[in-house]
Amino acid sequence: MSPMLLGGFLGGVLGAGLLIVVLRLPFLRKPTVDERISPYLRDLGAPDVFVGVIDSRSPFYAILRLFGPSLRSAALRLERILGGANTIRRRLQRAGLDRSVEEFRIEQLLWGAIGFGAGIVISVVAVAVGLGDPVALLVFCLVLGITALLGRDTYLTAQVRRRERRLLAELPTVAELLALSVAAGEGPAAALDRVARSSRGELANELKRVLAETRAGETLVRALDALADRTGLLALSRFADGLAVALERGTPLADVLRAQAGDIREAGRRELIESGARREVAMMVPVIFLVLPVTIAFAFYPGAVGIRLIAG
């Protein structure tokens, strides 16, 4: 790498840093309306993101306090660019994460900053050994940062799928436990309380939330409807709807729960068979493109060598 290109790259980085410092000077930055009235509404505002879970003696506490407003502003800009706040809020609920859209956007920014920082480290090493063009390395850093930023969204989707699999795995057992409790003479609320206290897992936590909503004054039917809307799973929606209908119409609840548990287990078996069929088709790819060519090569290579010797 020529000294001119290296000097231009370092000068551009220095100029960008000085520009950021100048633009953030207090007398050049006009405060927004939110910043002017936030000191008077401190008790009514949203809690500081990530600050409440970090000890004040930690060095990261000061960093978050220092860059918290900038992170919120950047998260707001990112939300305006990407959009989909309602979809993100829905997926956070389905993943069981007690976070706001703003916190999720800040996490995306932090992931992007980590990716961009990793790209800078790789670029510095490449420049030190004399490899790569500065412009190409800068593009590489930007691509790595954007990939990491979007990777947080992909990871949220994976979190949703993992939690849904856990809920579906726990649902038949919970339904049978509720059926046993109801058949023993307990009421629906008491049966839900007993199962929630004696069980562990995602569905038990959801049942605890349903009971907390009923204790706060909500009816059990509406709390179950909220459970169905919150999870978004078809099987769990049928389970909650069946409970609600049984409570409203006086249907024998134990029979309904046993039937639902059987239906859920049968649906799980069908899904397992379908998954096995898909995996069987996918297993043909390495067999055809890897194992079969090697087998053919081993079968025909001795013959080809023998023909060559005879011909020679």
From TrEMBL:
<feature type="domain" description="Type II secretion system protein GspF">
    <location>
        <begin position="176"/>
        <end position="298"/>
    </location>
</feature>
<feature type="transmembrane region" description="Helical">
    <location>
        <begin position="281"/>
        <end position="301"/>
    </location>
</feature>
<keyword id="KW-1133">Transmembrane helix</keyword>
<keyword id="KW-1003">Cell membrane</keyword>
<dbReference type="GO" id="GO:0005886">
    <property type="term" value="C:plasma membrane"/>
</dbReference>
<protein>
    <submittedName>
        <fullName>Pilus assembly protein TadB</fullName>
    </submittedName>
</protein>
<dbReference type="Pfam" id="PF00482">
    <property type="entry name" value="T2SSF"/>
</dbReference>
<feature type="transmembrane region" description="Helical">
    <location>
        <begin position="6"/>
        <end position="27"/>
    </location>
</feature>
<keyword id="KW-0812">Transmembrane</keyword>
<feature type="transmembrane region" description="Helical">
    <location>
        <begin position="109"/>
        <end position="129"/>
    </location>
</feature>
<dbReference type="InterPro" id="IPR018076">
    <property type="entry name" value="T2SS_GspF_dom"/>
</dbReference>
<feature type="transmembrane region" description="Helical">
    <location>
        <begin position="135"/>
        <end position="156"/>
    </location>
</feature>
<keyword id="KW-0472">Membrane</keyword>
